[in-house]
Amino acid sequence: MKLKSIPTKKSDHYFFLFYAFYFLITQFIGFSYTASVRIENEGGLPLIAVIHGVFGGLWYALFGVQCLLITGKKVKWHMILGPSGIPIVIGVFLTGIYAVFRVNTPEEEIPFEIMSSEIVLFIMGLIYATLGFVNRKKAHAHKRYFLMSMIMLSPAGIARFWELTGIAPSEVIYFVLFLFIIPILSILAYDLLAYRRVFKATVVSLIAYALSLYPGSLLGQWVVDYIRPLFL
C-alpha cells in the first residue's frame, strides 16, 4: 500500500528561511572579518582560500535562493537550479579538505584533534548533501538533509562571527551546544510542534551526527594520519 504523502506546512517556509539567512549573514560577516585581518597582516590570501570561499559563498547563497523559490512557489526554477548544487558542494568539500592542511599560517597551526574534527565535518556535510539530493522528490527529507549539511559546514564561519562580536564561548562544550546540538534539536522540535511527528530524515540525521562524534572521529583521525604527510 502506498503511503499517503504529508502536505508541507506554510511554517516550513519561515523555519528554513530563518536558517538560510542565519547562515548567509554569519558566514559572510565571519569570513569577511578574518579575510580582512589576514590581508592586513599577510598582504593577501592563499589562492585556495579564495577558491574555497567562492564555493562556500555559492553554497550558502544557493540554499537561500532555493528556500526563497519554494516560498514563492517557483518550484520549476527550484528544480532547474538544484543540480548546480552538486559541483558546488563537491568544490566546498575538496577545497575545504585542502585548506585544512595547507591554508593555516605558522602562528595558527591547527591542532591534530581540531584538524580531524574539521575533516569529519566536511565528510558529514557531503554525506547529508548527497542524501538531500537523492531524496529530492521527498520534500520533507530533502530539505532536512540539506539543512543538516549546512549545519555541518557552517561552524568555521559562525565561530569567526562570534570572534568578531566578542561573544565566543570559552568552553568547547558550548561551541558544540550552539553550533550543533541546538540547531539539530530545533529540527526535532519543529517536527513535533508543526507536524506532531518526527520525520525519518530527522531521526537518520540525529543518529548520523551521534555516530560522527566517536566512530566518525576515528575516521577523521585516519584521514589526517594518511593525508597530512603529503602536505609536510
Automatic annotation (TrEMBL):
Keywords: Membrane, Transmembrane, Transmembrane helix
TM region(s), chain numbering: 12-33, 45-69, 81-101, 113-133, 145-162, 174-194, 206-224
Superkingdom to which the source organism belongs: Bacteria
Transmembrane helix listed as a keyword: yes
The keyword Membrane appears for this protein: yes
Name of the protein: DUF2306 domain-containing protein
Source species: Fulvivirga sedimenti
